[in-house]
Amino acid sequence: MFAVIIIILVIWASMWAFYKFMYPRPPKSMMPKEGDVITPRQCNFCGNSLAEYRGVLETKPIMAAASDNPIDANQELFFCNYEHQADFHAGKIYDPHA
Predict the structure, then answer these.
(1) Tally of CB atoms within 10 A around 10
(2) What is the value of pTM for the model shown?
């Protein structure tokens, strides 16, 4: 019985060390700071969901005459990263297998 308990403790300790090594905590610079918007948004290029503070938010003013609703005076585009933003404006189509 003593051997079984020792084996379980050894396996638990080795698994704990393995997960500590394989999945470390992210650096504090990657964590949200006070005032960051953490609501998930969908990328306009690939459709992946990402917290707003982690991506690129682009606001484009729309012509007032073209908009029927004055509240919709700005159009917000959201992208995962700058590469997706550049590809979106270049007119490329998202291919997940490329």
Answers:
(1) 10
(2) 0.59
